[in-house]
Amino acid sequence: MEATGRAGHPLPYDIYRQAIERETLRFAEMVNGADTATAVPSCPGWTLADLTQHVGSLQRWFSALLTRRVQEPPRSREVDLGLPERAEDYAEWVAAGVPAVADVLRATDPQAAMWAWGEDQHARFWARRMLFETLVHRVDAERSLGRASDIDPALAADGVDEYLVNLPYAGFFAPGVTKLQGNGETLAFQCTDSAAGTGAEWRVRLEPDGFRLQPKAGADAAPSDARTTVRGQAADVLLLLYGRRTYQETAFEVSGEATTLDRWFTHTAF
Hints:
41% of the residues lie in helices and 10% in strands. The chain is an alpha+beta fold. The longest helix has 21 residues, at 48-68. It has a five-stranded mixed sheet with strand order 3-2-1-4-5. A hairpin with a 2-residue loop joins strand 2 and strand 3. It is globular. The model is unreliable at 1-8 and 218-223 (pLDDT under 50). Residues 155-263 form the MDMPI C-terminal domain. This is Maleylpyruvate isomerase family mycothiol-dependent enzyme. One of its GO terms (molecular function) is isomerase activity. Keywords: Isomerase.
């Protein structure tokens, strides 16, 4: 099923709920039977066992937050994981958790007020965040095993938006973000594929006191005045932002100052 929606606007909650189940099962199928000691180059120092444990643990943790409807930052991340003793059983453990996660998401009012580390202080934040954590790590697993990856363009564009909207709040676990500054430079990321919304663009302005995502431009807006622009298909832009690709690759059309991009990626890596 393809996602539908406009880039820059969160997709319907049911899209996230269904996509989480689909992406989780794809991840579990990919790593099932693979050598758990396989290195994951996009997550330095991790093996497939580490990656699989992370995906399953994070989903169970997010589900616990949603079940409790937490209203303030939790003081502990302890949750009953039921983690198997053998790393070879981690893939089945991830897949086995899918029904429980689905039940929690179905029982959740996405509009419910709730603490979140990002911009959107509602339960829907966690479903959106869970999806893109799982999706990007599915790509990590595929690349580790030499498999090709595909990402639905509309989901990818929404993932670009989710990343950029929440990045200003990520300093507590990614300290480099707090040092991302400039002198008024504007950086634009554009998606070129029609399924993601041709011309979808996000502009970020770097200021001496930090950076800000600029308001979305309407369809009749003037062409971008960004000093530096990166254009590519939505899936590629999403993976670029997450550090899984580099802007020097032929998948991207870059105009403007490379030094601005270098500064951006130096401070947003996590």
